[in-house]
Specification:
Helix content is 11%, strand content 51%. By secondary structure, it is mainly beta. It has two domains: 100 residues, Jelly Rolls, CATH 2.60.120; 103 residues, Jelly Rolls (Sandwich). The strands form four sheets. Strands 11-12-13-20-15-18 form a six-stranded antiparallel β-sheet, with no helix packed on it. The longest helix has 19 residues. It is globular, with a radius of gyration of 23 Å. The termini are far apart. 25% of the residues are buried.
Length: 236
């Protein structure tokens, strides 16, 4: 029989513990290197990713340096595992749109039998916009018009996020876009934009598609398709 001293036992314990801790350490990657995040668009305002996590799989641990908005495509059930915190069980409905403060790393695990899909929109000017006074005359509320509605979901970092619903042939009344905005299609879209003084512009997008639209114009928007249209706008 070999007798071990307390010091040797502690040494043996540490020897066995180090590989265990190393195995528990998760390597963090930049969001641009995370395989489920597919780069879609970048300009001075935003960087946009189309995200798709396969059923019962996880993203790599990745860091969000900026505040961001995400738009959920399809119902989802995920585990949000933020570094240093307990996992959170999250259920999302199709079209759920949320704001998330940045500067953290996490893993998103798809707990369902369907892919977890969303559009993640990083707000690249978040630090400046957090300190700036709001320039929006309306930061909440809902507008109802024949065959449709437009609802302001929230205003964060100087950005206004809204959801628009349009039945076939319905028209969003004339409105002005002073600044640019991003459109995220929740459904397939077949729309016509009638800008004052300009020929009508058709626009078709598939569900999950995005479109960056410069500002400085007034228009109406008509659903010329045969099915209801849903979209989210992120206005700057």
């Amino acid at each position: 029989m070999v007798l071990q001293s307390p010091a040797m036992k502690r040494l043996l314990f540490l020897f066995l513990l180090v590989p265990f801790l190393a195995a528990q350490t998760t390597t963090e990657v930049e969001i641009t290197a995370e395989p489920s995040h597919h780069f879609a668009l970048e300009n001075e305002y935003v960087r946009v990713f189309k995200v798709e996590v396969a059923p019962h799989t996880s993203t790599l641990m990745h860091r969000h340096h900026h505040d961001y908005v995400y738009v959920t495509l399809g119902d989802a059930h995920v585990s949000n595992e933020v570094e240093g915190k307990q996992p959170m069980d999250v259920k999302l409905a199709d079209g759920d749109t949320r704001f998330v403060p940045g500067n953290f790393a996490h893993i998103a695990k798809d707990l369902s039998d369907q892919p977890f899909r969303n559009v993640t929109i990083e707000l690249l000017q978040d630090e400046k916009l957090r300190r700036a006074p709001s320039h929006w005359p309306e930061e909440s509320g809902e507008k109802i018009f024949p065959g449709g509605r437009s609802k302001i979901l929230f205003v964060k970092d100087g950005v206004r996020v809204s959801e628009v619903n349009l039945e076939p042939s319905a028209v969003v009344p004339s409105h002005h876009h002073d600044g640019p905005h991003l459109v995220v299609a929740l459904t397939d879209l077949d729309l016509r934009s009638d800008v004052e003084g300009v020929a009508p512009t058709p626009g078709k997008l598939k569900s999950g598609d995005i479109k960056w639209v410069p500002g400085g114009y007034t228009h109406t928007l008509t659903n010329v398709g045969k099915t209801p249209a849903r979209l989210v706008t992120v206005e700057f």
